[in-house]
Amino acid sequence: MKKNIKNINVNYELYGEGNDTIVLLHGWGQNIEMMKPIGDKMCFNHKVLIVDLPGHGLSDEPDFAWTLYDYVEMLKELIESLKLKNIILIGHSFGGKISLLYASKYDVKKVVVFGSPYKKKIEKESFKLKVLKGLKKIPGINKLEGFAKKHIGSTDYKNASKIMREVLVNHVNLDITEDVKKIKAPLLIIWGTNDQAVPIEDAYELEKLVSGSGLVVYPGCTHYAYLENLGQTINVLKSFLD
Prior knowledge:
Blueprint: E1 2-5, E2 8-16, E3 21-25, H1 36-42, E4 47-51, H2 68-81, E5 87-92, H3 94-105, E6 110-114, H4 124-136, H5 145-154, H6 162-173, H7 177-180, E7 187-192, H8 200-209, E8 213-218, H9 225-228, H10 230-241
Parallel strand pairs: 3-4, 3-5, 5-6, 6-7, 7-8
Antiparallel strand pairs: 1-2, 2-4
């Protein structure tokens, strides 16, 4: 399904039953499919909204170089247009950063992030390369490898459109450390010790920055720890959300 938000068509899936709405946000260069393994397990007790972030998947590119604040406002408008309540944000990497920023500005019930950057520290090209290498190592999602090669590669800094290159630069250069300190909702942080894109040290620091947060560490897992230990992730999420 698509909705016109801020003059662009935003692609999304909305399904499931429940009083709370889980909003799933994927990482840079990915799409809805990367978050469906979670949505499909959580939709029996919750509504689930999965979004193709603008410039990714089947959503249009922004008509100018959006900042993360623009992504936050797009998401708020989409949620309100769908009349969704009791929002639980779950985001990976780029989507996690948007989730943190959203929760620092607006009321949400809970927040979960997987390998989410929040400091101005990530190099544009090496980040993308590390993400792709990490994805290749994940058992059980080989069917997504072709997608990953195509879509992560196509959104690399050198190959992306001019606007999306600028969006990437905006993302990489935005430090939201002070913003995350304003988060009031309970925050669950899930991270792999072998995350080469966003180091585990950032997870420990994030836990200290946000009052009422908790950290779950997956030994030996990469930037895609949430998928590598999908069963454990689902169990942890159910415990946290209930």
